[in-house]
Amino acid sequence: MSGRDRDDGGRFTAAMSLDDVYEYVREQGNVTTTEVAEHWGVSSETARRKLRELEEEDRVIARDVGSALLWMADE
């Protein structure tokens, strides 16, 4: 799944809403930033930004696991 569309200027844009990311995390149980990025074909930075937004909304929580963050739904 590419999850990418082109904007009016022909640039690629990620077609992933916060709700989409939240549902993916909830369905998977827990995910890494890399898994989210690969699922939508976006950069890790873009995925991390979406996950942080969800964390700020208290919809997901992050846990340090070694050198990675593991994200899970805060249900």
UniProtKB/TrEMBL annotation:
<dbReference type="InterPro" id="IPR036388">
    <property type="entry name" value="WH-like_DNA-bd_sf"/>
</dbReference>
<dbReference type="Pfam" id="PF08220">
    <property type="entry name" value="HTH_DeoR"/>
</dbReference>
<dbReference type="InterPro" id="IPR001034">
    <property type="entry name" value="DeoR_HTH"/>
</dbReference>
<keyword id="KW-0804">Transcription</keyword>
<feature type="domain" description="HTH deoR-type">
    <location>
        <begin position="14"/>
        <end position="70"/>
    </location>
</feature>
<keyword id="KW-0805">Transcription regulation</keyword>
<protein>
    <recommendedName>
        <fullName>HTH deoR-type domain-containing protein</fullName>
    </recommendedName>
</protein>
<dbReference type="InterPro" id="IPR036390">
    <property type="entry name" value="WH_DNA-bd_sf"/>
</dbReference>
<dbReference type="GO" id="GO:0003700">
    <property type="term" value="F:DNA-binding transcription factor activity"/>
</dbReference>
